[in-house]
């Protein structure tokens, strides 16, 4: 696939977003012009143009996949978002609610009354209902559960009984099961009688009469083997499977490691109770990645980019307050050496370089460590080796790049001793950055916190204060 072809779907989606925004803009513009008109035809003209614009906008939306509409809704300010949401056909509301981010979903549900929510969710599968249930009004969930049959109700309750980071909360109940004592021809006839196969069906699940998992029959084996063979002869008896209380992110890693499309979920006795599919795993990995990025920046939760000012402030204030405290500490460190800075003005120009390079190096180390921890590559047996390696990297970078900036300082200010202090300060601060880059995420993990939580803020605070102290301290000792 060429680069242009690879980019085409995304460009097409952006084009459609631009078209929706243009139609919304034209609608507002025409309404403003119609309001300025005088005469008896004013209201008629306004209504006619208004309906024409909305009809064209609705036609655009009808052609889009629910995921594309979700992307458009997330990219629109609240007023425009609700205008577009009202134009979406009611039977598509549930699928779109599943696709949008949690923050945007909250704004959409708040705009719906109970009857609209019930209509939107009534045709969803049990696992999809379980995804939405925590964000729906309690009385709506109760009424919705009453409309389900006993099997669906039990499935929803089962999915809701697990934590959101467990396999059971993500498993799908729609799957095809077969017996191992029938022929492949019988299986093929059975499949032909179905209206359609559940999404992401790459294998059929082989169970006994008690529902105990015996193995899986990959579709490719079903198609290429002799139809007269029994299922037991061609099925795989050792499939990768999961239990509902396992960690969902570890399951996602297994999907990536073994190139899975679907996998069985069994209870402790080995009974098949559901399956995991690749679409849920991809969503989980994306959400985990987004959450990690937010955590490293000190954001407490996912934020709607068009959320109210107050809501955004509440999401961001905590780590900004911490950052303010650390910045004050850094300023006090500088204050300790005011006399030195007054005697040698060059120190004021050079000290931000030491702190800045240290912060960048520390962030690189933290990113590598957090990634390794997410992939379970860091354990008690290799922690010290990892620390020594990062200290070695910091030492080498400090000597090389400290030497470079030290030479520049020598050239600019004509002082070889200032260049030497610059080299030494850079080396020591990069060693500090490496040390803290390993210790910060590991300490957070030891106390049961997300190792990425505010890591970027903390490493910057340490390297700023430490860099200023090291550089100004060395300068005071050796230059003044």
TrEMBL record:
Keywords: CBS domain, Cell membrane, Magnesium, Membrane, Metal-binding, Transmembrane, Transmembrane helix, Transport. InterPro entries: CBS_dom, Mg_transptr_MgtE_intracell_dom, MgtE_transporter, SLC41_membr_dom. It is a multi-pass membrane protein. Pfam families: CBS (PF00571), MgtE (PF01769), MgtE_N (PF03448). It is found in: Cell membrane. PANTHER family: MAGNESIUM TRANSPORTER MGTE. This is Magnesium transporter MgtE.
């Amino acid at each position: 696939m060429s680069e242009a072809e690879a980019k085409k779907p995304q460009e097409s989606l952006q084009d459609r977003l631009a078209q929706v925004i243009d139609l919304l803009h034209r609608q507002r513009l025409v309404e403003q012009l119609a309001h300025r008109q005088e005469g008896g035809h004013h209201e008629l003209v306004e209504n006619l143009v208004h309906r024409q614009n909305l009809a064209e906008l609705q036609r655009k939306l009808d052609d889009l996949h629910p995921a594309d509409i979700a992307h458009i809704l997330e990219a629109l300010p609240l007023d425009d978002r609700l205008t577009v949401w009202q134009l979406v056909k009611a039977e598509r509301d549930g699928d779109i609610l599943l696709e949008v981010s949690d923050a945007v979903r909250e704004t959409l549900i708040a705009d719906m009354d109970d009857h609209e929510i019930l209509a939107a969710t009534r045709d969803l599968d049990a696992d999809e209902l379980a995804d939405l249930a925590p964000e729906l009004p309690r009385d709506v969930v109760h009424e919705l559960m009453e409309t389900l049959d006993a099997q669906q109700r039990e499935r929803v309750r089962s999915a809701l009984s697990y934590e959101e980071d467990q396999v059971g909360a993500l498993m799908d109940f729609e799957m095809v099961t077969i017996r191992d004592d029938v022929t492949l021809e019988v299986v093929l006839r059975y499949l032909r009688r179905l209206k359609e196969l559940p999404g992401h069906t790459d294998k059929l699940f082989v169970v006994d009469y008690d529902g105990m998992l015996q193995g899986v029959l990959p579709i490719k084996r079903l198609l290429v083997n002799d139809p007269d063979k029994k299922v037991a002869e061609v099925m795989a008896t050792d499939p990768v499977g999961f239990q509902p209380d396992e960690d969902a992110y570890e399951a996602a890693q297994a999907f990536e490691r073994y190139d899975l499309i679907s996998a069985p979920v069994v209870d402790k006795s080995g009974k098949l109770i559901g399956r995991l599919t690749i679409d849920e795993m991809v969503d989980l990995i994306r959400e985990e990645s987004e959450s990690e990025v937010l955590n490293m920046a000190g954001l407490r939760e996912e934020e709607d980019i068009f959320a109210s000012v107050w809501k955004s402030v509440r999401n961001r204030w905590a780590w900004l307050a911490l950052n303010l405290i650390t910045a004050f500490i850094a300023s006090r460190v500088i204050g300790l050496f005011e006399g030195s800075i007054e005697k040698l003005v060059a120190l004021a120009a050079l000290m931000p370089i030491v702190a800045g390079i240290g912060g960048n190096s520390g962030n690189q180390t933290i990113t590598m460590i957090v990634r390794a921890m997410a992939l379970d590559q860091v354990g008690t047996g290799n922690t010290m080796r990892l620390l020594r390696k990062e200290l070695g990297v910091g030492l080498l970078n400090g000597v090389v790049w400290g030497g470079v900036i030290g030479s520049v300082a020598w050239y600019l200010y004509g002082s070889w001793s200032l260049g030497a202090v610059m080299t030494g300060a850079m080396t020591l601060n990069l060693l500090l950055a490496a040390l803290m880059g390993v210790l910060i995420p590991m300490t957070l993990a030891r106390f049961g916190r997300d190792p990425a939580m505010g890591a970027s803020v903390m490493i910057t605070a340490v390297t700023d204060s430490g860099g200023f102290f090291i550089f100004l301290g060395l300068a005071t000792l050796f230059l003044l």
